[in-house]
Amino acid sequence: MRERLQKTLARAGVASRRAAERLILEGRVTVNGAQVTRLGTSVDAVRDAIRVDGKRIPAPPRGHTYLMLHKPRGYVTTLRDPEGRPTVRDLLPGVRARVFPIGRLDYQTEGLLLLTDDGNLARDLMRPASSVPKTYLAKVRGEPSRESLARLCRGIDLDGRRTRPAQACVVRRGLNAWVEITVVEGRKRQVRRMLEAVGHPVARLRRVRYAGLGLGSLASGRFRELEAGEVEQLRRAVAPAGARVGGAMAGRGGRSEGRPEGGRRPKGSDSA
């Protein structure tokens, strides 16, 4: 598929669209060995050899679709809902690929949700052993004390089993403080239950990062395709999974052969 060169550069993570235009005008970009200085140039990111300052940019992933959605409240994380509620699929106009969510955000939770038709990557990311870090902003009742934050970081007993160590801090103080919390599990409604356990029920919950990828300026209800570098970041987050468990928090700061929709969802895929 052909598209404008500056868009291809931006999608590959080289620079923003405007900065990519400057790179082209400065003569720093070549396509198949020829210098390009015209902004209207169209390219095929898969077939053409595109270089910036002599370094070739990575080609986009072949055969799969990878999306980031800013899920609003009031949508269920499924492709169909027997109760007739709005689903995240309703937020993807024009997407022809049969994408499915990587993990879940519950009905009242908003924020970053990844969707793909790459079943292998999705399963790796949702596997409990992968310890993928997920960061949330929670508006809570009251303001957690240092001891409450320390309890969250050490782990909370839920259903007779302690949660794994987390990271938590108050980012906005007040009667209804905002808490940032990063977990590496996906137990059902885990973040809400952890905060309730220390006496601070959640009034609003938004996921802002997943495996190091952030929402950025993506507006609520909108989606975008992941850049090639972001897909590689997700792959690095789970390969090899066994070597990551000890350092899972470091990511804070990018056609399914199976049929996940009809199969069993891995345990630990719903932490909100």
- What's the CATH first level of the largest domain? Alpha Beta
Biggest sheet layout: 9 strands, mixed
Q: Predict the CATH topology of the largest domain.
A: Alpha-Beta Plaits
Q: Overall mean pLDDT score?
A: 86
Describe this structure in words.
By secondary structure, this protein is α+β, with helices and mostly antiparallel strands. The protein folds into three domains: 2-56, Roll (Structural Genomics Hypothetical 15.5 Kd Protein In mrcA-pckA Intergenic Region, Chain A), CATH 3.10.290.10; 66-129 and 216-251, Alpha-Beta Plaits (2-Layer Sandwich); 134-210, Alpha-L RNA-binding motif (Alpha-Beta Plaits, 2-Layer Sandwich), CATH 3.30.70.1560. The chain is built from six helices and 17 strands. The protein has helices spanning 5-11, 17-25, 119-126, 146-154, 190-197, 228-238; strands at residues 2-4, 29-31, 34-36, 42-44, 50-52, 55-56, 66-71, 100-101, 110-116, 134-140, 157-158, 161-162, 167-172, 178-183, 202-210, 213-214, 223-225. The strands form four sheets. Strands 7, 8, 9, 10, 13, 14, 15, 16 and 17 form a nine-stranded mixed beta sheet that branches. It has a four-stranded antiparallel beta sheet with strand order 3-2-5-6. The protein has a two-stranded antiparallel sheet with strand order 1-4. A hairpin with an 8-residue loop joins β8 (100-101) and β9 (110-116). α1 (5-11) packs across α2. The longest helix is centred in the C-terminal third of the chain and has 11 residues, at 228-238. It is elongated and about 65 Å long. The protein starts with a strand and ends in a 34-residue tail after the last helix. Mean pLDDT is 86; it is low at 241-268.
